[in-house]
Each structure stands twice: as structure tokens, then as C-alpha cells.
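Lab notebook: predicted structure, single chain.

Context: the supervisor wants predicted structures on file for every construct in the current expression panel, including those that have not yet been purified. This is the next one on the list. No modifications to the sequence; it matches the entry in the shared construct table.
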Amino acid sequence: MTQRYQLTADCYMALHGQWVIVQCGSVVDVPDAMILRNAIKLSPTESAGATPNNQPTGVRNIRLR
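Prediction complete. Output recorded below exactly as produced.
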């Protein structure tokens, strides 16, 4: 299962299996077991999708640095 989050601060994370800095405001799906700091969980109406290989997946507004 996955949860959808919007980042509230820049975050260094493995996105699609590659380590990058993802900027504030980006929306990502992450596995339930992963804990994200500096992020807010979006409402239940923001349905989450599958994350391949248990890696965070970019959803929208993805900005890399």
C-alpha cells in the first residue's frame, strides 16, 4: 500500500531509484513503511498509486535540483 505526500521542504531521496534533491511542493507516492519528514499527507481523495520496487514515485509538480 502507498500514501501520497506533498513535500514541505527540499528532500534528498531516491526517486525512481536514483538519488536526487526533490524540491518543496512536489507530490510523491511512497510505500507505507517509509517515513517522510517535512511532508504532509494528502487527503483520502488524493488516491495513491502503486510504487514499483518499493521506491518513491513522482506524481506531479516534481521539481528537481
